[in-house]
């Protein structure tokens, strides 16, 4: 399933969807997957239940993972990568971002019964968390009528695995880390001796700045917005690098009033701060191109799955 945002320029989506760094082809991403799944398996320790029944156990078995609710499935690429390093054979019936129905079979495992029971909870926890985030992201997107790019913040429990799940649900990754892009927030600006003059001085120099994927500046009120808006209009960046103004904790009606008055084809707007499933619909027609919400990753509901031995 390809989830297409209707009114977001493609180059803006490219800047906010860091897919290449969130694939198992990337070594750093492999290490992240290995760490979380290995930790989950290691945490389980010795299985006393298996030990009790060991003399009566079948050595090999077939097991299947089923969805126990409707939603978007995520984490399959990582599970496939991880299982290839074990003796467990697998058969996948779906791919990441697929719409899954309740009771639908997702994958089948064949191999040593003790090993399958040992990794069962790790697999379900992994798929459950990432699918929960992907499903919530898709729900956010539906509530904005596919007109706004939905992104997480860096408030993540499972680091960039959580951000990968947001992309699978149809959203963006925003910054993966501090070296992804320039995002000047309140604390950065407060440390400048003279905020606007210092920024004008920096960007007036005829040198190539290390901006990263985009340049974004946070504003706290309308006066700050006007100043930053006029500053960004003067800055010449390559056409593929977006210039963004982030409205931090602005009520939607205030954002709508400002974006209606101030327009520039090279400047885009983002809303952030206190946005959740309960109020996201009110930001739908405010003129923002991006919404970032920490709730996507710190308040997502676990996706319900089960593993059953045939």
**Residue share in helix:** 25-40%
Q: What would you give as the CATH superfamily of the largest domain?
A: Aldolase class I
Helix and strand content put the structural class at alpha/beta
N/C terminus separation: 29 Å
CATH topology of the largest domain: TIM Barrel
Under the CATH scheme, the architecture of the largest domain is Alpha-Beta Barrel
Number of E-state strands: 12
Mean pLDDT: 92
Which value, in Å, is the CA radius of gyration?
A: 23 Å
Strand content: 15-25%
SSE arrangement, N to C: HHHEEHEEEHEHEHHEHEHEEHE
Major sheet strand order: 6-11-10-9-8-7
Shape: elongated
CATH class of the largest domain: Alpha Beta
User: Which blocks of ≥5 consecutive residues have pLDDT under 50?
Assistant: none
How many domain modules? 2
User: What is the number of helices?
Assistant: 11
Main sheet summary: 6 strands, parallel
Structural notes for this entry:
This protein has two domains: about 10-135 and about 300-310, Quinolinate phosphoribosyl transferase, N-terminal domain (Aldehyde Oxidoreductase, domain 3, Alpha-Beta Complex), CATH 3.90.1170; about 140-300, Alpha-Beta Barrel (TIM Barrel), CATH 3.20.20.70. Helices cover about 40% and strands about 20% of the residues. The chain is built from eleven helices and twelve strands. The chain has helices at about 10-15, 25-45, 50-55, 75-85, 115-145, 160-170, 185-190, 195-205, 220-235, 250-260, 295-300, and strands at about 60-65, 70, 90, 100, 105-110, 150, 180-185, 215-220, 245-250, 265-270, 290, 305-310. The strands form three sheets. Strands 6-11-10-9-8-7 form a six-stranded parallel β-sheet. It has a four-stranded antiparallel β-sheet with strand order 3-5-1-12, covered by helices on one side. A two-stranded antiparallel ribbon has the order 2-4. Helix 2 crosses helix 5. The chain starts with 9 loop residues before the first helix and ends with a strand.
């Amino acid at each position: 399933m390809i989830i297409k945002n209707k009114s977001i320029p493609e180059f803006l989506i490219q800047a906010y969807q860091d897919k290449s760094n969130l694939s198992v082809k990337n070594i750093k991403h492999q290490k992240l997957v290995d760490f979380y799944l290995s930790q989950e398996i290691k945490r389980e320790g010795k299985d006393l239940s298996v030990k009790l029944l060991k003399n009566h156990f079948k050595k090999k078995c077939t097991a299947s993972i089923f969805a126990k609710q409707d939603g978007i499935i995520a984490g399959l690429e990582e599970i496939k990568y991880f299982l290839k390093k074990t003796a467990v054979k697998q058969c996948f019936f779906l791919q990441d971002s697929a719409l899954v129905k309740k009771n639908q079979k997702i994958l089948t495992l064949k191999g040593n019964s003790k090993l399958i029971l040992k990794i069962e909870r790790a697999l379900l926890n992994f798929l459950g968390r990432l699918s929960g985030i992907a499903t919530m992201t898709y729900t956010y997107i539906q509530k904005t009528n596919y007109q706004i790019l939905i992104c997480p913040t860096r408030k993540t429990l499972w680091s960039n695995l959580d951000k990968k799940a947001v992309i699978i649900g149809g959203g963006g990754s925003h910054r993966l880390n501090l070296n992804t892009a320039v995002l000047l927030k309140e604390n950065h600006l407060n440390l400048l001796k003279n905020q606007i003059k210092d920024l004008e001085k920096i960007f007036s120099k005829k040198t190539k700045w290390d901006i990263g994927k985009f340049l974004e500046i946070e504003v706290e009120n309308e006066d700050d917005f006007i100043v930053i808006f006029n500053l960004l209009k003067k800055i010449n960046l390559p056409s593929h690098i977006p210039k963004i103004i982030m409205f931090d904790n602005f009520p939607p009606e205030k954002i709508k009033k400002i974006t209606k008055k101030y327009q520039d084809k090279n400047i885009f707007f983002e809303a952030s701060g206190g946005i959740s499933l309960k109020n996201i619909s009110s930001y739908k027609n405010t003129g923002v191109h991006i919404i970032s919400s920490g709730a996507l990753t710190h308040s997502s509901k676990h996706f319900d799955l089960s593993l059953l031995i045939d």
